[in-house]
């Protein structure tokens, strides 16, 4: 659904394109501010979004539809570039650093001291901005009264782009490192910072951190990942938290965890969406989330009783059983709610993994062994879908056929689940290092298999992500694999399927040797399903408004945005390739003449039967120019591995016009740590 454009608001808005926020160490951060015209006479609360993604170009289009809307309803809306990004001074050396958080505390104090601000502030953000909203809230700044955190996590090790279940997330670790390399090398805008732009740019280029090496050096859940993981001390957050996301997003687990662990006021909202704000939500239905956010801000920043805290703690989209597709304009389902979380209404239902399939009762103990082809995962979809129609997992039959599967009898009566399905398996492995991927699928009567839930566990991490230990070959052990949270309605006549595999490419980096695992069936292997009984009150839930936005920025598209996914396999060479391009920032000419162009082809490849053949290749070109001012970044990275190590190489060439200002070349070899 195309959002309705609002052109009039209760208060007229003026935009300050650039404002310096001074920090105690002399560094200045660049801010764009939207204010009600009369805010100096009638001060307002403020809402801050604090990002490294460049307010001047890369996020300018998104910012324009969101922040003026908030300002028009009586708030100061601020978009601040983090230190060392966009037009801000200083250097950016990592994600979610202590420096980033310290700076944010100063920014909040500066905002509260302005004559147009009442002193009450909220933070909001999706992804990075959702992360640091939580992290800054944990510092308890007195000015911060509430946050909206979308598509973020409370646990940087469990649910982010680096690791999954203790295994290297091949789909994103080196990809995101390459993104940060090229993003970090973008220059400030001379129209904002003046003649110092080149000096600032060269300082950034010379200080670019080798993030792939840093992240691979921390393959366990150590102090590096605990920093910024608010799950370490959820009681540190006292302000109100609205956690938002989608079932198709990679960060959904954190919403339910935070509703359970945070001690203060909190709400959760989960739609069918990918990594997107709900007002642009895909798959649909999108909702009027800007209106919903105003109800939140009005309650916590203005003291207006909007009724939002009288409503259920968790509202979610119960997804109905549909045919599997790589994308949906509208995901069939309905809105439902739970008054609190964890919900006492959830009824655990146990299925036993028997040799012949899934059933409520155990049969005689048995065993089934399996070694997957390295092509399992071809139908996994993107780990972090952004609205590309080909990003979702498709029909699972191909992956199922190459996995170890256990099917139930046909479902007699429809039922629904809400939460995390959990597989508790008794396993053994013939190798000291192995991982297991489990998928819960619903199989239609025609054989179509739709993914419901999935989970991954590095079996060396079976007891702890902090203290992994090698597997003793051929000795049975217990492994608990929690699948991603989901709300799903199973249809009568269909079957449940548990699919177990020893590979899941390109999501997970393969173990150094092909491993055969054995599932010891019977009472020691089960699936726990979080069954949700119907709730009559759901029929009376107030509807969300239709999506609304402020007037979009009038920009010219310089190239059609064409994100793509291509999967191919050569049956002679057994080479399997997965190619994609997200084209997140696309190519556009903004008002004022600045042009921003971004291209990012990515290739994942593996030869079936050879886990050491895995490779992730990233290319990226970013051009930023205006008139005679032209800059270009050419980035290349590659990740491979051998039996002992992960190997990463990176290069970056930075050009001003036709003059190369930097030629960066570096590589690293990081020992595998039980992975």
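^ structure tokens above, recovered residues below v
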């Amino acid at each position: 659904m195309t959002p309705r454009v609002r052109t009039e608001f209760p208060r007229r808005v003026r935009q300050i394109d650039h404002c310096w926020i001074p920090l105690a160490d002399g560094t200045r951060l660049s801010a764009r501010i939207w204010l009600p015209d009369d805010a100096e006479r009638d001060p307002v609360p403020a809402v801050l979004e604090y990002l490294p993604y460049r307010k001047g170009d890369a996020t300018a289009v998104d910012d324009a539809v969101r922040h003026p809307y908030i300002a028009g309803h009586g708030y100061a809306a601020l978009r601040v570039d983090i230190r060392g990004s966009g037009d801000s001074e200083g250097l950016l050396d990592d994600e979610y650093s202590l420096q980033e958080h310290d700076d944010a505390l100063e920014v909040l104090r500066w905002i509260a001291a302005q004559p147009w601000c009442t002193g009450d502030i909220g933070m909001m953000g999706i992804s990075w901005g959702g992360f640091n909203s939580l992290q800054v809230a944990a510092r308890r700044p007195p000015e911060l009264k509430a946050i909206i955190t979308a598509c973020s996590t409370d646990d940087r090790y469990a649910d982010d782009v680096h690791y999954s279940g203790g295994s290297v997330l091949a789909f994103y670790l080196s990809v995101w490192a390459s993104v940060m390399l090229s993003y970090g090398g973008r220059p400030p805008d001379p129209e904002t910072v003046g003649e110092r732009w080149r000096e600032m740019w060269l300082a950034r280029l010379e200080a670019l951190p080798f993030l792939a090496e840093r992240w691979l050096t921390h393959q366990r859940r150590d102090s590096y990942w605990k920093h910024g993981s608010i799950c370490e001390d959820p009681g540190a957050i006292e302000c109100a938290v609205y956690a938002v996301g989608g079932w198709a997003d990679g960060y959904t687990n954190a919403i339910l965890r935070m509703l359970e662990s945070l001690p203060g006021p909190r709400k959760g909202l989960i739609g069918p969406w990918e990594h997107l704000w709900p007002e642009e939500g895909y798959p649909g239905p999108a909702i009027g989330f800007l209106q919903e956010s105003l109800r939140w801000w009005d309650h916590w920043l203005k003291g207006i009783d909007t009724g939002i805290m009288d409503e259920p703690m968790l509202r979610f989209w119960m997804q109905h059983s549909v045919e599997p597709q790589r994308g949906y304009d509208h995901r069939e389902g309905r809105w439902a709610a739970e008054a609190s979380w964890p919900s006492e209404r959830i009824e655990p239902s146990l299925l036993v993994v028997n040799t012949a399939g899934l059933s409520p009762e155990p049969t005689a103990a048995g065993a089934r062994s399996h070694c997957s082809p390295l092509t399992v995962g071809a139908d996994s979809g993107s780990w972090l879908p952004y609205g590309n129609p080909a990003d979702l997992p498709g029909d699972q039959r191909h992956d199922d056929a190459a996995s170890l599967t256990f099917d139930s009898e046909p479902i007699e009566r429809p039922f629904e689940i809400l939460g995390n399905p959990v597989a508790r398996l008794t396993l053994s492995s013939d190798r000291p290092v192995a991982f297991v991927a489990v998928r819960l699928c619903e199989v239609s009567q025609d054989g179509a298999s739709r993914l419901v839930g999935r989970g991954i566990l590095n079996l060396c991490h079976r007891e702890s992500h902090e203290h992994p230990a090698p597997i003793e070959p051929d000795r049975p052990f217990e492994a608990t694999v929690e699948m991603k949270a989901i709300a799903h309605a199973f249809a009568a006549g269909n079957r449940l399927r548990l699919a177990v595999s020893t590979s899941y490419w390109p999501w997970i980096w393969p173990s150094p040797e092909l491993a055969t695992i054995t599932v010891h069936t019977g009472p020691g292997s089960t699936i726990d399903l979080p069954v949700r009984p119907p709730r009559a009150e759901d029929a009376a839930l107030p509807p969300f408004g239709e999506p609304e936005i402020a007037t979009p920025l009038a920009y010219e598209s310089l190239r059609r945005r064409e994100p793509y996914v291509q999967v191919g396999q050569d049956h002679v060479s057994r080479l399997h390739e997965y190619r994609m391009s997200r084209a997140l920032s696309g190519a556009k000419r903004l008002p004022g003449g600045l042009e921003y162009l971004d291209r990012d082809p990515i290739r994942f490849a593996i030869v079936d039967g050879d886990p050491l053949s895995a490779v992730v290749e990233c290319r990226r070109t970013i051009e930023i120019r205006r008139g005679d001012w032209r800059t270009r970044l050419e980035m290349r990275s590659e990740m491979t591995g051998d039996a002992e190590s992960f190997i990463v190489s990176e290069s970056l060439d930075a050009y001003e016009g036709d003059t190369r200002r930097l030629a960066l070349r570096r590589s690293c070899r990081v020992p595998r740590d039980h992975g």
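The first helix runs from residue 60 to 72.
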